[in-house]
Amino acid sequence: MKLQETVHFKWYKHLLILIVLVLCFQASVGLTSADFAMVFANSGQMTDFLSRLIHPDFSYLSKLVTPMVKTLQMSLVGTVIGVAFAIPISFLATTVVTENRWLSTIFRFLLGLVRTIPNLLLAALFVAIFGIGEATGVLTIAVFTFGMISQLMFQAIETIDYGPIEAAAAVGATKLQIAVWSIAPQVLSQFVSYMFYAFEVNVRASTVLGYVGAGGIGVILNSSLALLNYERVSIIILTILVTVALVDKLSERVRRSLL
């Protein structure tokens, strides 16, 4: 009897949750003024878009090689610059090295501030300041990489073995010597792994930076969409997908070999 009552209770509970979800959905639709009827009313436009999208313009592929190479170059240079600045800051953001909680807290706050700025917003700001071009994309990627890698690096530093640090300090080593000879060897493989992971993320991110004028293949994608040239949009998307898949595969292999 008790088992039957428990089953009925669970059934009513699930029904109540479903009703609440439906009511929340209806309230959200009302608050956002979402008109799904309009979406289905444009089914003709969707059909036209998809019918042209599934017919890529392969004759345009040769013209995408240079922009795609530029996108990869942007990602690589931005990643290297970001990592170069992230390494010293990551050491300063941890009390393992500084032994000063206030100093490390300041650097962590700055890193948190950098990470809160979305990529596209950052790119738009740099375009307004420095103008349109690949250099703006490199700066955007560098700042994004700096914030992400610094966070990962100082967290890795805080999980190391303190034995080598205490041994080095006992023989009178300076903080710089401790960082170079006692800490860096323990986290070097992780640092390299994070760098390849950042490059992998940046290749995907850099393809959309062109929407705000930050250079790369995103500029061509944006212009093709604006001109309603969906056959070219299709081949651009395919090129991006293949490139990103190859970079992901290479990055995954390198990171597995390091960890």
From TrEMBL:
<feature type="transmembrane region" description="Helical">
    <location>
        <begin position="109"/>
        <end position="132"/>
    </location>
</feature>
<keyword id="KW-1003">Cell membrane</keyword>
<feature type="transmembrane region" description="Helical">
    <location>
        <begin position="178"/>
        <end position="197"/>
    </location>
</feature>
<dbReference type="GO" id="GO:0015416">
    <property type="term" value="F:ABC-type phosphonate transporter activity"/>
</dbReference>
<feature type="transmembrane region" description="Helical">
    <location>
        <begin position="233"/>
        <end position="251"/>
    </location>
</feature>
<protein>
    <submittedName>
        <fullName>Phosphonate ABC transporter, permease PhnE</fullName>
    </submittedName>
</protein>
<dbReference type="InterPro" id="IPR005769">
    <property type="entry name" value="PhnE/PtxC"/>
</dbReference>
<dbReference type="InterPro" id="IPR000515">
    <property type="entry name" value="MetI-like"/>
</dbReference>
<feature type="transmembrane region" description="Helical">
    <location>
        <begin position="203"/>
        <end position="221"/>
    </location>
</feature>
<keyword id="KW-0812">Transmembrane</keyword>
<dbReference type="InterPro" id="IPR035906">
    <property type="entry name" value="MetI-like_sf"/>
</dbReference>
<comment type="similarity">
    <text>Belongs to the binding-protein-dependent transport system permease family.</text>
</comment>
<keyword id="KW-1133">Transmembrane helix</keyword>
<keyword id="KW-0472">Membrane</keyword>
<feature type="transmembrane region" description="Helical">
    <location>
        <begin position="138"/>
        <end position="157"/>
    </location>
</feature>
<feature type="domain" description="ABC transmembrane type-1">
    <location>
        <begin position="68"/>
        <end position="251"/>
    </location>
</feature>
<dbReference type="GO" id="GO:0005886">
    <property type="term" value="C:plasma membrane"/>
</dbReference>
<dbReference type="Pfam" id="PF00528">
    <property type="entry name" value="BPD_transp_1"/>
</dbReference>
<keyword id="KW-0813">Transport</keyword>
<feature type="transmembrane region" description="Helical">
    <location>
        <begin position="76"/>
        <end position="97"/>
    </location>
</feature>
